[in-house]
Amino acid sequence: xxxxxxxxxxxxxxxxxxxxxxxxxxxxxxxxxxxxxxxxxxxxxxxxxxxxxxxxxxxxxxxxxxxxxxxxxxxxxxxxxxxxxxxxxxxxxxxxxxxxxxxxxxxxxxxxxxxxxxxxxxxxxxxxxxxxxxxxxxxxxxxxxxxxxxxxxxxxxxxxxxxxxxxxxxxxxxxxxxxxxxxxxxxxxxxxxxxxxxxxxxxxxxxxxxxxxxxxxxxxxxxxxxxxxxxxxxxxxxxxxxxxxxxxxxxxxxxxxxxxxxxxxxxxxxxxxxxxxxxxxxxxxxxxxxxxxxxxxxxxxxxxxxxxxxxxxxxxxxxxxxxxxxxxxxxxxxxxxxxxxxxxxxxxxxxxxxxxxxxxxxxxxxxxxxxxxxxxxxxxxxxxxxxxxxxxxxxxxxxxxxxxxxxxxxxxxxxxxxxxxxxxxxxxxxxxxxxxxxxxxxxxxxxxxxxxxxxxxxxxxxxx
Length: 464
Ligand code: PFF
Description:
Strand 1 (3-5) and strand 2 form a beta hairpin. The chain has a single domain (7-463), classed as Amino acid/polyamine transporter I (Up-down Bundle). It is mainly α. Helices cover 77% and strands 1% of the residues. 4-fluoro-L-phenylalanine (PFF) binds at residues 43-44, 46-49, 118, 121, 246-247, 249, 252, 254, 341, 344-345.
């Protein structure tokens, strides 16, 4: 048993007592189980679903990518989500205190890794969210590019100039305002209207997109791409696993922080299943919406993020009169999804700072967001740095934290997992434990090594 010291000198016995007093950051609870599910789904559903999945499928892999992604979600995503929820709910502490509570001081670095990844991801995520907001504004003002050159200029305009900085600041301010308002009155209230609105808009866009002439041919061309060599391509394997992690928001401590506000009665397995299903379902719906719209520009060297702002407006522009309205709906949807994800990312450093410094929520939210704004400046100033941050923090670091999380919960604290997931049917519980102990460490270790090689190799070739 480890002794956790809370601010104010309150020493607390760690995990034997699962009803232990929550730390300062975790004292506010969710209003209801549904509120938590919607907030956690809001954290998971973001730009990664609305665009990242389609982009990666289209760029290479097609069917192989899709299948590997789904395998990664079911085989690793779901058990690791459960592990993160157990860690948060059982300890009822912010990410750094939670890892120490179950693993002792030597696991503190995992908590710091959560803090690092969530803060740095938020820095560049807010830049892209600012672009989404500006794209929405542009279409509402009737500026829709109609050809390739116009679309290139559209993206350059969104991602440059002083207005980009203003949009970035506004996104961060909005995110801080929601977090500062509180768990129930801020985060939960936002998710309660925004998630249903997002699902309705998504369904509407899907009905329209799937019924377009040529939609089935596009699906066949992109989704049914089949090459045997794709199945063994380490790049596709790595991308599929990274996509699953980023999309579910695993390895950043966000789910842990959200789960620290849960009560002991909440059925974690059911909640995790619904969150995983919603996140994956929205990703697949977005694929079905975007594929018929997408042109060859996806391979045009803009990177995932740039292509969103080039391919999608061009696709909508080709629809004639309905184009602007549909594009406004799409970017509005993307803005909602991005803000709820940004809120979850900010909750991690806010919870850590509240517990370490003993500050109130509002003061912590505004001070933390100021630090995030500074750390995100490189991504604001250079799209290349933005993409590099995404590869490093949204890819390699998340996979690395996931690997450590599986070791912590599978080997150091298996009794907490068994106790908190006792509602699971025994064979499923055994499957979760087997995954946390063996499958996840081995697979994630391999993917982590592949990612490091992929990042380091080009640098070495440059030297040679
Ligand atoms: N899951 C979000 C997306 O797909 O865009 C991104 C994200 C949110 C990553 C929250 C990490 C996180 F903690």
